[in-house]
Amino acid sequence: MNSTLRRTLFGGCAAFAAIAALTLPTAQAEEEPPTALAEVFRDDFDGGAGTPPSDANWIIDTGTSYPGGPANWGTGERQTYTANADNLQQDGSGNLTITPRRDGSGNWTSARIETQRTNFEAPEGGKMRIEARIQMPNVSGNEALGYWPAFWTLGDAYRGNYWNWPGIGEFDIMENVNGINKVWGVLHCGTAPGGPCNENNGIGANRECPDSACQSGFHTYALELDRTGGDEQLRWYVDGQQYHSVSESQLGAETWANATHHGHFILLNVAMGGAFPDGVAGHATPTDATKPGVPMVVDYVSVQQS
Description:
mainly beta, seven-stranded antiparallel beta sheet, 3 helices, 33% strand, disordered N terminus, Glycosyl_Hydrlase_16, hydrolase activity, hydrolyzing O-glycosyl compounds
């Protein structure tokens, strides 16, 4: 939770970025600029095959809700989360796998983890970047109906309360549904329904993964919270290409601060079924055609701050 932030060469990097912005061709306008950030958290999931992720870094959520929280994790999901190696394990090759399973009675299980730490935030006047390299479940068409992999955060005040969403902020860094070749990035904030973030849909955008399908291989998904300028911003990236942003001026200072000016914790999970925002993709319920046993594979998770 306590991080030593490196500032050496920050000014030099900022100057370089300014020069680069003047010289780069227009086609690269959406590429990420260089930033002077220090890594304050990283997990490469390099434990032995069949082992759970480090309990120093992660909490394994189990069941169908937080104790006393909304049923079905608040989204109408169909699966039960477990700590079983069939659903959650390091593979011995530097990856974490989260694998949905279906039993003979049609019941689904899967896994969900969240960081022990809840203090990932951008300091006033600084930046934070949360990033992971992930392969979505490699399944599509009818076999993918109901798959809902996600890499996301919740505001620190949610832990132990479970009824203060969406005011505490939710950053969906990578969401996908039904094996569609797209990544969704979404901000949830304010009040529900409606409110400044159009809940329960949130403020979102999506795009296809660059060069290859999201499901066919690893891609890098990142969120940057930038508090260095007069109008603070959240920016979403896939493989270094920005595809979405939300600014403080869109929401108002109070709503923005309630969603962003505090710590967040990170989550990774694969849900089956549930209420993926209707205005985004229209989530489907798993059917008999849905193929069990296709994992989301996570290479690493990293957090950097300036």
